[in-house]
Design brief:
eleven-stranded antiparallel β-sheet, 395 residues, four-stranded mixed β-sheet, 15 strands, alpha+beta
């Protein structure tokens, strides 16, 4: 028996099919983009006429300086820092160079190894400060006569941070742009300032108790504050710490912070559970050229206690170290390494970013010539002479 299909029914079914087809085609397009731009080794971004585009979200790794708030799940703290940083980036008297220009066009490529390491040619970073001395101890004392952040001027300041790290207060210092902060900031204040040699958008420094003369030697209170701050920000924020001898260029206590759209290579690496101590999961990162540990907990206090127990042992044994805080303060990566001296800041070095798999190289020739073998060998060369017996620490 003939049963004609009504035009309305046919139109509805046909429309559904078209929508499904469009969804499938969109999924295929996205997959092809990922394969072509994110997974295949090679150039991620090259300098050219489109340089300013890197500031507006067309770079697969770097967070854009200019973006639609609806496109990214950022928090109120993120927004306050980003807007203030952006204003300073647009001025001509705060940064030593601007992102998207010839000094920092964010030229990047995948290294092409099995660890998804990234290499960035960061020309402007060749102008960053250096310690100008041979480091023999991670406990190098603070030098009041040398450079420290209490000597910077108001134009570099973004705002104040509470002791817990949970409250950021933007400071309007329009009338104090050229005034040294020591003339109007209390010594026990925690400041967030811009990094005047940025390699990424919203590159900041956190300076605990800026005027009390703390050397670059991690404290438990500083670690707690950094974890608290990370918890108020989005997961795009990464906080890193370099001890003396692990890439720190200023011997004044500070954390570095920056925003990336992508996770760091070391975050993608496989891990092996070692044990759980007082509610903290402690894992070893597998296959990494330098032995590294990842600690995770939903308790900020317990996580800080566990991380600091490791740090105290590293300080006791004069072992340099790099630390990454990620996942909104719920995960911390600790990388023990031997003391390194890098007197020439125009050459590659192993600091926090490099041990995390993100190579920052000012020299164009070194940027182009870095291979998986040479990068892995360079990292392996930073291994400490004695491995940390982490199990013994938590017995």
């Amino acid at each position: 028996m003939y049963n004609p299909v009504s035009p309305v029914h046919y139109s509805t079914v046909h429309g559904r099919r078209r929508r499904r087809l469009l969804v499938v085609m969109l999924a295929i397009a996205i997959l092809l983009f990922l394969v072509g731009h994110l997974l295949v080794p090679g150039v991620l971004y090259e300098a050219g006429d489109e340089q300013p585009a890197v500031l507006r979200g067309f770079h697969p790794l770097h967070f854009p300086v200019y973006f639609n708030l609806r496109s990214y799940a950022v928090t109120p703290t993120d927004k306050a820092i980003m807007f203030s940083w952006r204003k300073k980036h647009e001025s001509n008297n705060v940064f030593k160079y601007q992102l998207g220009t010839s000094l920092e066009p964010l030229i990047t490529r995948y290294l092409g190894d099995n660890l998804s390491m990234v290499v960035q040619q960061a020309v402007g970073r060749s102008k960053k400060r250096k310690l100008n001395k041979i480091i023999k101890s991670v406990g190098e004392p603070f030098n009041e006569k040398g450079f420290h952040f209490f000597k910077i001027k108001g134009r570099e300041v973004l705002g104040k941070l509470s002791t817990s790290g949970e409250r950021f207060l933007e400071l309007n210092l329009q009338n104090k742009q050229d005034v040294p902060v020591k003339e109007f900031i209390a010594p026990d204040q925690n400041l967030i300032i811009v990094n005047t040699n940025p390699f990424a958008a919203f590159h900041i420094l956190i300076i605990p108790e800026i005027g009390l003369g703390h050397s670059q030697k991690l404290t438990h209170s500083s670690l707690l504050m950094a974890l608290g701050f990370a918890d108020t920000c989005s997961s795009y924020l990464k906080l890193v710490y370099n001890s003396i001898g692990a890439g720190a260029s200023v011997n004044h206590h500070h954390w570095q912070g920056f925003y990336l759209k992508s996770t760091l290579p070391i975050e993608k690496a496989k891990t092996k559970q070692l044990f759980i101590a007082n509610g903290v999961l402690i894992q070893e990162i597998l296959g990494w050229p330098i032995r590294s540990f990842k600690l995770t907990s939903d308790s900020r206090a317990r996580l800080a206690d566990a991380v600091f127990r490791i740090v105290e042992e590293l300080l006791r044994t004069n072992t340099a170290h790099n630390i990454l805080i990620t996942d909104k303060g719920s995960s911390v990566v600790v990388v023990p390494r031997k003391i390194g001296n890098y007197p020439d800041v125009t050459k590659k070095q192993v600091a926090a970013m490099e041990v995390l798999g993100f190579w920052i190289i000012p020299n164009e020739e070194e940027y182009k010539s870095l291979t998986p073998d040479s990068a892995h060998s360079f990292l392996a060369g930073a291994r400490p002479e004695t491995d940390l017996d982490i199990a013994q620490l938590f017995r």
